[in-house]
Design goal:
By secondary structure, the protein is an alpha+beta fold. It has 3 helices and 10 strands, in the order βββαββββαβαββ. The strands form 3 sheets. Strands 3-2-1-4-8 form a 5-stranded mixed beta sheet. Strands 5-6-7 form a 3-stranded antiparallel beta sheet, covered by helices on one side. It has a two-stranded antiparallel ribbon with strand order 9-10. The termini are far apart.
């Protein structure tokens, strides 16, 4: 069975989970992240992923790809994390670095855009062509789907 690794980096936590192609979560773990800049966040992601692999392990075999949802501005086409917020800006080629280290394709995007897309594909968004996804966490953000 092919599985996929998902990471969700928020303002206070990093969630790592493995899922199947239908969006069913097979395994997951939560890691505290705290306040960070992008370079510190990269280290948190790598150390948490290493711990996840060591302690939780793969469901069956290594996932075929990973996706990372990040707070702030992201260039998903280039795989570059641009900034957390205007006061914490550092261009990091995150998708390439994670792909090189963990040996699987990596796609990155904004966390709320990623959650909105997941809701569209696997959640209540399947029954509506128009909806608003509201994310209330450390901050508040909204994703919209129209047609």
């Amino acid at each position: 069975m092919e599985t996929y690794l998902g990471l969700d980096l928020g303002g206070t936590k990093l969630l790592i989970g493995e899922m199947d192609s239908r969006g069913n979560i097979l395994r997951y773990e939560k890691y505290d992240s705290g306040y960070f800049n992008q370079q510190a966040a990269l280290e948190i992601i790598k150390s948490s992923l290493d711990d996840y692999i060591r302690t939780v392990g793969w469901y069956d075999q290594k996932p075929v790809a990973m996706g990372v949802g990040l707070i702030g501005r992201v260039d998903p086409n280039e795989g570059v994390w641009l900034q957390i917020d205007p006061s914490r800006t550092q261009r990091i080629e995150l998708a390439k670095e994670l792909s090189d280290i963990y040996g699987m394709p990596c796609h990155i995007d904004n966390d709320v855009k990623s959650a909105t897309r997941a809701e569209r594909v696997w959640g209540f968004g399947q029954i509506s062509k128009n909806f608003i996804y509201v994310n209330i966490g450390t901050g508040i953000a909204v994703g919209t789907v129209i047609n």
